[in-house]
Amino acid sequence: MPTDSPSTAQHYDVVVVGAGFAGLYALHKFRDQLGLRVRVIEQAGDVGGTWYYNRYPGARCDIESFNYSYSFSEELQQEWVWTERFAGQPEILRYLNHVADRFDLRRDIAFSTVVESAEFTGDGWSINTTNGTFTAQHFVAAAGNLSVAKDPGLVGLDDYEGEVYTSSAWPHEGVDFTGKRVAVIGTGASGTQLIPELAAQALELTVFQRTPNYATPIGNGPMDHELQQQLKPNYAKLRERSRANFGGFPYEQSQPSALAVSPAERRQTFEARWSQGGFRLFLDSYQDLLVDPVANETAAEFIRDKIRERVTDPAIAELLTPTGYPYGTKRPPLETNYYETFNRPNVQLVDLRREPLERFTAKGIETSDGVREFDAVVLATGFDAMTGPVLRLGIRGRDGKALTEHWSEGPRTYLGLMVNGFPNLYLVTGPQSPSVLYNGPLAVEDHVDWIADSISHLRADGLTTIEPSAEAETDWIEQTLAIAEQTLLPQTDSWYMGANIEGKPRVCMVYLGGVPQYRQICAEIVADNYRGFHLS
Ligand code: N01
To answer: Which cofactors are named for this entry (predicted)?
Structure first.
């Protein structure tokens, strides 16, 4: 196995960017199963990816822990014991550290190393980093979908003299907000998780909300020991069922339409799923919630009623109640005591739609209603999702063409895996694959397995490059957009649409045909001798 430092031997069969869920599995798969020379480049000081960085109080995965885990190793599945139904960030990071140790992965990861640019050289890739240049025949971007914080464009932030924290770059030593006046900007999934935690600690907490969200209960609690014992012998079946499910979860197929049942029955279903908790459980109540606006409105109204029940001040409840866009078209947060937090005497809500944020001052935040002073500000303002992490790598393909140019009107991929003009560049859970709507660990395993098969296929045939044709790429984008148009997602400004970033092309970046259909298409293309790809 290669143990060379970057300064001596720098040529590899595969260079992978990122040591999160995707990069760790890629290293294990390529090195230990294919026998390839692999180097992983990771900007952080250790493994974990998103779970390394997002250490804010309350950070937790909203997919059940036994589902949000690798399926590739039966031994790993059997030995790892989850302590919570929905694992918190520290436990997931411990799990990934365990994986790194168990499969001896760290020795092939260059930590604290940032990719500055990557160029296709004709027969492979040259990857320039802050710690020298690496060359490789294959280049795998496993840099995550939500790993580049968005610049929130807050005027005067540099003038602010208090403490500033970003949810996705939280200090490792934690922050003590006791006795402080704290502001939070952003009420997406991150804000929804950290707001109740901060409210319990801070002297005063002021939440600056621009768009209210449809948050539903996560329903966390200790992992049921008996349930875990029952699940373990059945993991193989569980994974099989997950991969046969639209979003990669082992759930029963829900009923087709919210409109095919009586209002009483519908309410009963929503109630049952509301109390069970979990992201998929509620959104999955009926198959047409993301397709039919009338069906969607039944779920939206159910959630609005719950908010009104939980928030004591009707005026605050109204501000927290989402209207004007369908449920699920912005990624819905999962919460614990989120709405009750606004009943606390030390919590204030500022509605930025009525009272726009004008600028930061030395002491605080000025809105159209005046200045409020704060000791600390927390930004939970989101990410340059999906394309940001790939474009940041400064990739140039055939004839020096920049990926930024190729994607100037939105991402262009074939299967969300490869890009015309960029041979041997692979994207793990890239745009136009199910990606962020596919249970993460299983999604990355599928893509890494596909890439491994493709590299093995090339090697078996004495070939060196694979690249999708321009036609296959265009055709895939058209299919992806046509499916998106059948859903409600394009109606809403969300990060799924690139609409959270000013100037970013507004286009649906997720394949919405569901996991089983996507997996079938990928398999058929391979079986049809890599239809749409040029191998040489
Ligand atoms: O980011 P977001 P996030 N002025 O983009 C507001 C995953 N995740 O980090 O909606 C004022 O969703 C913005 O307002 P608006 C998950 O996939 C998962 O919370 O644009 N406000 C919004 O309220 C999730 O979807 C987990 O009007 C500004 C918020 O900031 C994704 O990561 C936990 C603003 C950003 O919300 C991203 O979530 C956490 C400005 N200039 C995250 N700019 C779990 O597994 C932005 N906002 C549970």
So the answer is: FAD
ipTM of the modeled complex: 0.99
Q: What is the DSSP string of 307-343?
A: HHHH-SSHHHHHHHS--SS-TTSS---EESSHHHHTT
For residue 150, report the distance from its CA to the centre of ligand 1, in Å.
Answer: 10
The string of pLDDT tens digits covering residues 388-411 is 999 999 999 999 999 999 999 999
| Ligand 1 center to 250 CA (angstroms) | 27
d(CA 230, CA 237): 12
Q: Which residues of 142-163 are buried (b: 16+ CB within 10 A; e: fewer)?
A: bbbbbbbbbeeebeebeebebe
Of ligand 1's atoms, which has the minimum distance to the CA of residue 191?
19
Please give the distance, rounded to the nearest whole angstrom, from the Cα atom of residue 418 to the centre of ligand 1. 28
Q: How far is the CA of 231 from the centre of ligand 1 (A)?
A: 33
Q: CB–CB of 156/360 below 8 Å?
A: yes
Both tokens assigned to 97: 């550290």
56 CB under 6 A from ligand 1?
A: no
3-class secondary structure, 44: coil
- Nearest alpha carbon to residue 385 among 410, 403, 409: 410
Three-state DSSP state, 245: coil
- Read off the pTM: 0.97
Pairing of strands 466-468, 533-535: antiparallel
